[in-house]
Design brief:
Layout: H1 14-18, H2 21-30, E1 33-36, E2 41-44, H3 47-55, E3 60-61, H4 76-80, H5 97-106, H6 111-130, E4 137-139, H7 141-145, H8 147-157, H9 164-177, H10 184-210, H11 216-222, H12 235-265, H13 270-276, H14 280-291, E5 297-302, E6 306-308, E7 311-313, E8 318-322, H15 323-326, H16 362-379, E9 384-385, E10 406-408
Parallel strand pairs: 2-8
Antiparallel strand pairs: 1-2, 3-5, 4-10, 5-8, 6-7, 9-10
């Protein structure tokens, strides 16, 4: 057994926000498992260890708060206490409760249901492009990558279309709440908005109890659980689950689409190649997920003293398994830092997780990304990055993607 390596986890310097991968490469070589004192977590960077953390549910619990900041400003926790308490919900839930929740949710995201949604996703994609095609320029994050998955997940859950804009604003506040560049004042405001979001969702739950409809939310509200599962979902459980589904179904897919478009437009000739052969979009999506995943890592809690790469990690410790690093481990891919849209088996990545927590919406995310890419290059054949554009990125430990993507084309 060895001591943990020493390493400065300066993830939020300007250069690392723009490109964290050199930092990850150094960590894999110098300190593959180390303690980040500033955040109070153990950071795991090699693919084999990351895979172990994601799949070994006996040693690593998924019970971890996902809407409570690791470093909270004064008053933030008190504000959050005014809302609904965060309880385990799918992403941060262990068996057997996780088994029950996933079984209820999985039907809405099954391959069959995803295929049925394809024409609707296509219509939404075309409608969004209709809204800016005549302009000759647009921010493809704000006007395309973000609203597409938001509309899909809101309609799937049963959130009124008129509320989608407000839901988007609330998800932005959740990102601010868990970011590391927010001032104390902004973090407190984000906490207030988080409480407002929780109350909105609770009211929606109660509305479905009184007036069931043909949507996912009604299915969750009325679902009859197994006899030993403790009854139907409570309002508190449903609020946590809905936030997980909305954030996972919207934010991560938006970042996937934004990153894929940035890579697409940053490589001359690729857009034309996909326009000529739309099937190539599948490889682009998978290589994007490998080389620059929208979810950079996942938290777990150590159940009992354990070892990773010979380093002892104590029971009760919080572990951050860095998926963005694991995907670029030389043990996982040849020339791993190179973006290669024609890479053989680009799907050998961990971007959607592994094991029981493999992303339930993976098929839908792939469908939305593929549809966005193929439709954009068909509708706007000379689309390109604006001259001199350099993408800004989220300053967030978990989530990564461009916050803006300025593109131009012939009107």
């Amino acid at each position: 057994m060895t001591e943990a390596g020493t390493f400065v986890f300066d993830r939020f310097s300007e250069s690392h926000v723009e490109n964290p991968y050199p930092l990850y490469r150094r960590a894999r070589a110098e300190a593959p498992v180390y303690y980040a004192d500033a955040f109070g977590v153990w950071v795991v960077t090699r693919r084999a260890d990351v895979r172990t953390v994601l799949t070994d549910v006996e040693r690593f619990s998924s019970a971890f708060g996902i809407r409570t900041p690791l470093v909270a400003a004064d008053g933030v926790r008190e504000i959050l206490a005014e809302g609904y308490p965060e309880v385990p919900a799918l992403l941060n839930e262990d068996p057997p409760a996780h088994t029950r929740t996933r079984a209820l949710v999985a039907t809405a995201f099954s391959p069959r249901r995803t295929r049925e949604l394809a024409p609707h996703v296509q219509r939404l994609t075309d409608a969004l492009i209709d809204g800016f095609a005549a302009d000759g320029e647009a921010d493809l994050v704000g006007r395309f990558a973000l609203p597409l998955p938001l509309r899909v997940i809101c309609e799937l859950i049963g959130i009124p279309a008129a509320d989608a804009g407000q839901v988007r604003a609330w998800t932005e506040e959740l990102k601010t709440l868990t970011s590391f560049d927010a001032t104390p004042e902004r973090q407190r405001e984000a906490a207030h908005q988080s409480v407002a979001f929780e109350r909105y969702l609770a009211a929606l739950v109660e509305a479905r109890r009184a007036d069931p409809r043909d949507d996912l939310l009604t299915g969750l509200v009325t679902a009859e659980p197994p006899e030993d599962a403790g009854g139907r979902f409570s309002t508190t459980e449903l609020v946590s689950l809905l936030i997980t589904l909305i954030f996972g179904g919207h934010e991560t897919t938006a970042n996937l689409i934004g990153t894929a478009l940035l890579l697409l437009l940053g490589h001359p000739g690729l857009a034309a190649a996909i326009a000529a052969d739309p099937a190539r979009a599948d490889s682009l999506v998978e290589e994007t997920l490998r080389v620059d995943p929208p979810v950079q890592g996942s938290f777990r809690t150590v159940v009992a003293d354990t070892e990773l790469s010979g380093v002892r990690v104590p029971a009760g410790a919080q572990v951050f398994a860095v998926i963005g690093s694991a995907n670029r481990d030389p043990a996982a891919a040849a020339d791993p830092d190179t973006f290669d849209p024609d890479r053989a088996r680009p799907d050998r990545h961990l971007a959607f997780g592994r094991g029981i927590h493999f992303c339930v919406g993976a098929a839908l995310a792939r469908l939305e990304a593929r549809t966005a890419i193929t439709t954009l290059v068909r509708r706007l054949p000379d689309v390109r990055l604006a001259d001199g554009f350099r993408a800004p990125y989220l300053a967030n430990l978990l989530h990564r993607g461009p916050t803006r993507l300025e593109a131009v084309w012939s009107r």
